Amino acid sequence: AQKITQTQPGMFVQEKEAVTLDCTYDTSDPSYGLFWYKQPSSGEMIFLIYQGSYDQQNATEGRYSLNFQKARKSANLVISASQLGDSAMYFCAMREGNFNKFYFGSGTKLNVKP
Amino acid sequence: NAGVTQTPKFQVLKTGQSMTLQCAQDMNHEYMSWYRQDPGMGLRLIHYSVGAGITDQGEVPNGYNVSRSTTEDFPLRLLSAAPSQTSVYFCASSYGLAGQDTQYFGPGTRLTVL
């Protein structure tokens, strides 16, 4: 079974609007971490936001927030007030327990329209 | 502080040739990993290391060898390149495995095997 599933291969959003990128995960480990990364066309991987499995509140980092629904095993990324520079691939990832193993989803390509 | 560096940026090999992808980090991180990124599949873990002298296999280790003789360096060796190894390779490092100890990624190596 896939550890991380991103069901939206591509999405469009109008500049200044909010957008939600979906991510579901699969693990039986009670301790895990969820990460979102941005990959612009230049290719580098940029860390955006983290949510721990025991965190009570949803994580926020500037315009990024993570909608964490533990019972549904979902960790959706919300980008508020989209900007043209947000156009990129976005990857959801999970680390199980305290292991140096990250599992990545297949990514969502976000296009922000002016 | 250069972060994670990878060389070369681009490489073309013929089937059966061998080569080593170099990765170095100057952040004194214990944990290092190698990933490959194929279109539509996100990043997949090849090998990882939790410290000098300690390595382990990830999801897709076949055809690749690694060693970790120093904290700073984590080279990836292709002993006999195959067209199926055409991909973009990322090296990553992290300080720890707790909480939001995220990985820092190198710029990637684009490898083509003919």
Please tell me about this protein's structure.
The complex is a heterodimer of chains A (114) and B (114). Chain A is an all-beta fold. Chain A is 0% helix and 52% strand. In chain A, strands 2, 5, 6, 10, 11 and 12 form a 6-stranded mixed β-sheet that branches. A 4-stranded antiparallel β-sheet of chain A has the order 3-9-8-7, with no helix packed on it. Chain A is globular and about 40 Å long. Chain B has strands at 4-7, 10-13, 19-25, 31-37, 43-51, 54-57, 64-66, 76-78, 87-94, 104-105, 109-113. Chain B is globular and about 40 Å long. Chain A binds chain B through residues 4, 6, 9, 33, 35, 37, 43-45, 47, 50, 52, 91, 93, 95, 98-107, and chain B through 31, 33, 35, 40-45, 48-50, 58, 88, 90, 92, 94, 97-100, 102-105, 107-108.
Counting copies of identical and different chains, the oligomeric state is heterodimer
Derived from helix and strand composition plus strand pairing, the structural class of chain B reads mainly beta
Number of helices of chain A: 0
Strand content of chain B: over 45%
Q: Which two chains have the most extensive interface, and how many residues on each?
A: A-B, 25 and 27 residues
N-to-C SSE string of chain B, H for helix and E for strand: EEEEEEEEEEE
Instruction: Report the mean per-residue pLDDT of chain B as an integer.
Output: 92
Distance between the termini of chain A: 38 Å
Helix content of chain B: under 10%
Mean pLDDT of chain A: 93
- Please compute the radius of gyration of chain B using only Cα atoms: 13 Å
Which helices and strands occur, and which strands form pairs?
The complex is a heterodimer of chains A (114) and B (114).
Chain A: E1 4-5, E2 10-14, E3 19-21, E4 24-25, E5 32-39, E6 46-52, E7 60-61, E8 64-69, E9 74-79, E10 88-96, E11 102-104, E12 108-113
Parallel strand pairs in A: 2-12
Antiparallel strand pairs in A: 1-4, 3-9, 5-6, 5-10, 7-8, 8-9, 10-11, 10-12
Chain B: E1 4-7, E2 10-13, E3 19-25, E4 31-37, E5 43-51, E6 54-57, E7 64-66, E8 76-78, E9 87-94, E10 104-105, E11 109-113
Parallel strand pairs in B: 2-11
Antiparallel strand pairs in B: 1-3, 3-8, 4-5, 4-9, 5-6, 7-8, 9-10, 9-11
